[in-house]
Amino acid sequence: MIANRNLFGKLALLALIVVFTSCKHEQSTTTGWNYNDRKNGGFEVVPYEEQETGPGLVLIEGGTFTMGRTEQDVNYEWDNQPRRVTVPSFYMDQTEVRNIDYLEYLFWLTRVYNLDYPRIVQKALPDTLVWRSKLAYNEPMVEYYLRHPAYRDYPVVGINWLQANDYCKWRTDRVNEYILINYGILKHYTGQTNDDHFNTDAYFANKYTGEETNRQLVDLSPNGETRRPKMEDGILLPKYRLPTEAEWEFAALGLIGNTLYERVVERRLYPWNGHVARTDAPSNYGDFVANFRRGRGDYMGVAGSLNDAASVTAPVYAYWPNDYGLYNMAGNVSEWVMDVYRPLSFEDFDDFNSFRGNVYKTFVRDNSGAIDDKLTYIIYDYEAIDKWLNNAEDGFIKNLTDRNGGQLDPREDDLLAKVNKSVDAAIKKNAERKFEEASEQIEDALITIDGAPDAIEIATELLKGISDFIVATPGELRERNVSIEENLERRNYRKSNNINYLDGDYASNYDMNGWASWQKDDGSNSMYDYSHTSMLNDKARVYKGGSWKDSQFWLSPGARRFLDERQSTDFIGFRCAMTRVGSPIGNY
User: Which of 78, 234, 308 is CA-nearest to residue 582?
Assistant: First the structure.
């Protein structure tokens, strides 16, 4: 937990800079000028010890390890061949995100957005229907698992990759807002709605207009009085995010417990020592150390001697933590990580901070070069909405037409025509960089759908489907992909989207006739012909670890699987991570 004492201690140290300006100042070793001296322009160098540990996190001291297969490759996927890499230190949640944590998120979204933008809340809702199975009675889980207090400490499921990322962004802002309130810099304001809520990026860019107290930091510039905290003060924490695949695997193995000086004295198959999933501790001899499916039809064991005491998921603090203090890094639920899946990623990865999925972005700026104002409207993925509606093979309209015997109800046909007209207009406005007008076109479509007669059952499906394509919400700063033109002199990258680099980009593809696709200039992606020759595309995201539904094989941290970023299941959850800045070794 964030220690209030440490936070207020930092604030006191910052205040001391001003109080003792008459004392001897620290000097620059390069220019000789004083730091923190109003007479010299007021360049500030604040005292700083180390990064605070955010709520729910533990420090994972990084290092080198052999990433990849630790078990036999029984499926012959050959997608996790062992490779030596280095992972820098980072923070990770001690447990999976719980139902109660996610309900707190939904409560905040409802309070802030539901009156004017209910679709933002709808996008965040977990898919509770993932519990259904055609030949099993799982309706009690559909009704109770997310919201009943009996399950509050169980891992949230039914969350897709995009929803997990949105949760991480929200958590960043709420933790940093809490820090500023604890400092006494911000007033606690519960009436935030729409675009006036706290956002970390907007705060650093001086775009947040929330109510502040009189307890601001002293500005040491010649004409300054007070100022807001800046990144240079080290008060606010880095962003919560999903861990990379390399980070997750490194943390799951927990080899720090088997390391003597620079030697790993015992290799691990799982997050614990040994080749079995039972403990050899005398007090609990023979007990299972993870929640998984023991065998065909055996999810919990025999009455009177349940092998893992969990029919589906278990509380997040169940079983023993690994040597980093992390719970359920094998079993219970599988977990989303940041990476885009490619079979050959382990051959292509950098050997430091390995990751596939970089899409470089920058904040939109005005003509003066300053960061543009925060959003007051929703931004959608307009092209994706159009594809979702009109894809000739599996689009919404195609499936609806097939379901109705090849013909649509005239009222449905009329409604879809109006929606498509608005979507086409939004695409056009977005191409013309009229972003707010593009958003208004989609809002008009939603109003049209919302006002449709109750007899048109597809209205609810349309509202939910379009809501799923929200990419930015009011209160955030607008971002854009970096352009090739602004990176012409760079050697390390040129284009924004590097997901396909070395495996799937047009320079590494071959078409059906065997001719190298690098001869094409349209950036086509024939290597991964999604739904025809492959289930891979740039939306395929890696998830790691075994779950309550899996056999013991999947408990190995080196095992990897993938799923489309918009899909969710009853056995995939997530936990957050945070970058460790500065020294890789800190106070636990």
Answer: 234
Can you give 27-92 as a three-state secondary structure string? ECCCCCCECCCHHHCCCCCCCCCCCCCCCCEEEECCEEEEECCCCCCCCCCCCCCCEEEEECCEEE
**Token pair of 558, please?**
């080196």
Exposure string of 52-78, with b = 16+ CB inside 10 Å and e = fewer, is bbbebbbbbbbbebbbbbbbeeeeeee
In which residue are the tokens 């589906």 written? 312
Question: Could you tell me which residues come within 8 angstroms of residue 348 by beta carbon, excluding any fewer than 6 positions away?
Answer: 342, 356, 501, 502, 503
Decide if 52 contacts 6 (C-beta within 8 A).
Answer: yes
Please give, one letter per residue, the 3-state secondary structure of 177-209. Answer: HHHHHHHCCECCCCCCCHHHCCCHHHHHCCCCC
What is the gyration radius of the CA atoms in the chain, in angstroms? 26
How many angstroms separate the CA atoms of 563 and 472, rounded? 23
Which amino acid is located at 202 in the chain?
A
How big is the CA angle at 541 (ends 532 and 247), to the nearest 5 degrees? 150
**pTM score, two decimals?**
0.91
Q: What is the pLDDT of residue 522?
A: 41
Q: What is the DSSP letter of 304?
A: T
**Is 473 in contact with 447 (CB distance < 8 Å)?**
no
Residues in Cβ contact with 80 at an 8 Å cutoff, skipping those fewer than 6 apart: 68, 69, 73, 346, 558, 559, 560
Residue range 157-174, pLDDT digits in tens: 999 999 999 999 999 999
The two structure tokens encoding residue 409 = 């109800």
Evaluate if residue 19 carries a pLDDT over 80: no
Q: Residue 483 CB: number of other CB atoms within 10 A? A: 12
Supply the pLDDT for residue 520.
41
Strands 301-302, 263-264: parallel, antiparallel or unpaired by DSSP? unpaired
Question: Across-strand partners of 380?
Answer: 470
User: What is the pLDDT at residue 277?
Assistant: 87
Please list, residue by residue across 214-227, b when 16 or more beta carbons sit within 10 angstroms of its beta carbon and e when fewer do.
eeebbbbeeeeeee
Q: What share of the chain is helix, strand, coil (3-state, %, to 5)?
A: 30, 15, 55
Give yes or no for a contact between 114 and 345, defined as CB atoms under 8 angstroms apart.
no
Q: What is the distance between the alpha carbons of residues 565 and 329, in angstroms, rounded to a whole number?
A: 21
Rounded Cα gap, residues 575 and 588, in angstroms: 19
Q: Which of 21, 48, 44, 47 is nearest to 219 (CA)?
A: 44
